[in-house]
Design a protein that fits this description.
Blueprint: E1 2-8, H1 22-28, H2 31-36, E2 41-47, H3 68-87, E3 91-96, H4 102-112, E4 116-121, H5 142-146, H6 152-155, E5 169-174, H7 179-188, E6 191-194, H8 195-201, H9 203-216, E7 221-227, H10 249-261, E8 265-271, H11 282-296
Parallel strand pairs: 1-2, 1-3, 3-8, 4-5, 4-7, 5-6, 7-8
Helix pairs in contact: 3-4, 8-9, 9-10, 10-11
Length: 299
Amino acid sequence: MDVNLIGVPLFFGSDVRGVDFGPTKLREKDIDKVITKNNHTVRDLGNLKVDCIPEDSKFSYHPKMKYLQPIVDVNQDLADYVYNSLAAQSFPFVVGGDHSLGLGSISGASKYYKNLAVIWVDAHTDINTPETTPSGNVHGMPLAAAMGRGITELTDLYFEGVKVNPENVFIIGARDIDEGEMALIEEMNLNVYSTIDVNERGMKAIMDEIHQQLLDNGVDAVHLSFDIDCLDFSLVPGTGTPVQDGMTVLQAKYLLKYLMSTNLVKSLDIVELNAALDRDDSTADLVIDLVDWTFKYLQ
């Protein structure tokens, strides 16, 4: 498989410096060679341009959302990179950076595929809006925007309209959900699986259920967006919003192997590695291990 490696050194969505160093750290650890050894061809497209914005200007673009316009600009570019990669029959692999980049990845994939599904693996559901956000951090809003909820600058990014239908959205590993997000989950009847569900039901049963729904819904492709904070906080000190009682490495690997083996995953994000917070590169090394594991099963 031809893989396009796309770095997005973005911290504006989380408002925590260090996550912008994620792509560089993973390149230092030869992420391209890790993918190549699994019989893929890697084209490193470098890092997307991210403007330098003074901290005192973070609310200059919107009174409740930090760094809105720079985030829109980066996501617009990312959407184009993802769309053009798919059009060239390449697999776009996006390395963050914070999870606000997920809107750009989804938008690019959605323009290419008529009936896209999104599997969002995260300790958080990231479906806040300007009205519900407790922090103003846009990395808590991309999935809501992709489903058409939020301000038009986000919901109409790259092209006007909904990027993914709620029935095609599956959130796994969520355990830190805001009140406004809970209301949206109920309103949209979203498919959300907490780590309690994973532990009680087992990852296989959940994956089987999701796979069947993907087939029943007739999806063309899956965009997989993997936030490393889905893992228990003890495993990932190098991330900005760690949460206890998360998934184990074995659970995450089962999920990744299962999904990649379906041949439905056509684009991938791995996000929220904060190199400045990491301890002895333990989180970065774990991410490299997960990348190695994932690309073994990319068909």
